[in-house]
Amino acid sequence: MITSKKDMEYVTEKLWDKVEKSNTKIAKRVYNALNRDIMSVILEDKVFWFESTSSFVSIPNFVYKYAIKFYEKMGYTYLYNLPIK
Q1: Is 85 within the bounds of a domain?
Q2: Distance between CA 61 and CA 73 in Å, rounded?
Q3: Are 17 and 48 in contact (CB under 8 A)?
Q4: Which of 22, 55, 66, 69 could connect to 27 by a Cys-Cys bridge, CB 3.0–4.6 Å?
Q5: Rounded to an integer, what distance in angstroms lies between the CA atom of residue 34 and that of residue 22?
Q6: Residue 71 falls within a domain, yes or no?
Q7: Domain contains 84
Q8: How confident is the model over 20-69, as pLDDT tens digits?
Q9: Residue that wins the pLDDT comparison between 31 and 11
Q10: How far apart are the first and last CA of the chain?
């Protein structure tokens, strides 16, 4: 079951709100990276993953780590952290 576009926009907005309001150095770096429109968050059921918006753009590791930690706190599971069956 694919999650609606509205749900994907909601989780993306939550990350933006978090980094925009935070005063930490890492949050400011994440905000600057996201401001360059480097990635999209894809959400299916309670599983999420990221896609780069361009083949010429790579997503920095600190953005991955920050976003994964943030979304896992919201109760979502990162695609590559799913248990192998």
Answers
A1: no
A2: 18
A3: no
A4: 22
A5: 14
A6: yes
A7: no
A8: 999 999 999 999 888 887 888 888 888 888 888 777 878 889 998 999 99
A9: 31
A10: 19
How many H helices and E strands in the chain? Answer: 3, 3
Question: What are the pLDDT digits (tens) for 12-30?
Answer: 788 888 999 999 999 999 9
Residue partners of 37: CB distance under 8 A and separation at least 6: 53
Q: Domain residues for 58? A: 5-79
Give alpha helix (H) positions in the chain. 5-21, 25-34, 61-73
Cβ atoms 67, 52 nearer than 8 A: no
The number of domains in the chain is: 1
